[in-house]
Amino acid sequence: MPHVADSSPLIPLYVNDGLLRPEQVGSLRHSSPHEPLDDLRRRYGHDGYLFLKGLLPREDVLKAREAYFTLLAPSGVLAPGTLPVEGVFDKDKDKLDFPGMVTGSTDGNGRPRGGRFVDLALQAHEEPWYKDEFCKHPTLHSFISKFTGWGDNTLGLTRSLLRNNTPQNKAIGVHYDQIFLRYGEDTSMTAWVPMGDIALDGGGLIYLEGGHTLGRDIETSFYDLAKETGLSEEETRNAFNKNMMSGGLLADGPKEFSEAHGRKWLTTNYEAGDVVLHTPYTIHASTINKDPNNVIRLGTDLRFVDSSRPYDRRWSNVYTFGDGV
Ligand SMILES: O=C(O)CCC(=O)C(=O)O
Ligand SMILES: [Fe+2]
Fold it and tell me: Which fold has domain 37-314?
């Protein structure tokens, strides 16, 4: 039987629009990659996500975390006397000089404000240890190919975003991924991969309870609205069309969104090696990183598709600022 945590997290969780009330928070259901695939598929279909404990070897994830912060260290982001793999933010620095890669906190060209830190954070996406090794981890690839039944057609899309949430900075708002993948079918799968341990209040992802069915309904209403307001097919597919919020998000604030829909946000602490798979309609956001030890939250979202089906080819290049997706 999967372990189902039965108590709501008790420590305060902050999101972009304030502190979540205890009744707005629940626990993410845990699964093991060793359970029968049919059970896991059923759970994924029911919950809209699958939180796989320890899918990846911990040391492989920590190796990538170490490489990332070794690359970024010259920017001065790390606390003196700490190791790169720890990724501890130097609390004497101004957090605004070290902005995370988060939708909404960018200049007019899609670039987050910030100097060398931002340049190096972008460069990390091109590094062989990231794009050729970590993103193509055989354990993840092979699990997804079996889980989905896509087999040899399983394709990991090249475009991905390394999200480096520095303490106290803004977090990503409420969204589902299909908004950004509309040039393809709604059959993709996202693997959200925490790159390091993340404490409960350390800025991990939060999932709206039953959010995949709500996300599907919202997408249908966006399409209906697009028709009513006379948008062309091209405009309809655009995540940033005039009927959407700027940045393509459903809302900036998870707290108000949970109140409006009467649903909880589900979360947990994460450990290096864990992976969450989610559907293209699963509604999610992130908490603000309040880690008491100033640990920087690093994670990436890897998208997988069935390459025999139409998929969003705009995701075939390494991420750059303002790439329009
Ligand atoms: O890591 C984050 O804060 C956001 C990741 C995300 O939205 C995704 O996995 O689709
Ligand atoms: Fe997402």
Answer: Jelly Rolls (2.60.120)
